[in-house]
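fwd from M.: "can u put these together and see what the complex looks like"

so here's what she sent:
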Amino acid sequence: MGSQSDWETMRHADAILNELGVAHEVNIVSAHRTPDRLAEYARTAADRGLHVIIAGAGGAAHLPGMCAAWTRLPVLGVPVESRALKGMDSLLSIVQMPGGVPVGTLAIGAPGAKNAALLAISILAVQDAPLAARLEAWRAVQTASVPNTPMTELP
Ligand SMILES: Nc1c(C(=O)O)ncn1[C@@H]1O[C@H](COP(=O)(O)O)[C@@H](O)[C@H]1O
């Protein structure tokens, strides 16, 4: 994530990865404020054994795109909701990559962070049968938790 302030959003990705038992690391890396740290992080990611990168940033969110520029690993971008423009700036910065350097872009805010983790798990599960089984079980629980009819009584 681009800043400590993104943790409130990105913790939703961390929670899903923990829940499904996926080894991961969490770092603050900024294309703007720590450009050398970003280059080092993304250039060495594949050799360090990482398989997918989730990059969350807000405002002029260059982090996911710059990350993708430095690595061949799949990069999933989470637009963090900005105060001034409600995350529209983050979304458009992340989604409008030029052809040739893709970033898989998720929804703004916590749902996007949650889905980034689930999408990363789907990617990893292609080659990891036990993880695929855990993901299917997680989704079955989600499905079972959705009622057929709404509660109409006010609490
Ligand atoms: N978009 C970026 C990048 C980047 O793209 O490299 N680095 C920090 N930021 C974003 O700035 C916002 C405000 O950060 P602060 O709260 O630290 O001022 C955060 O959402 C962060 O992701």
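replying to her w this: The longest strand covers residues 53-58.
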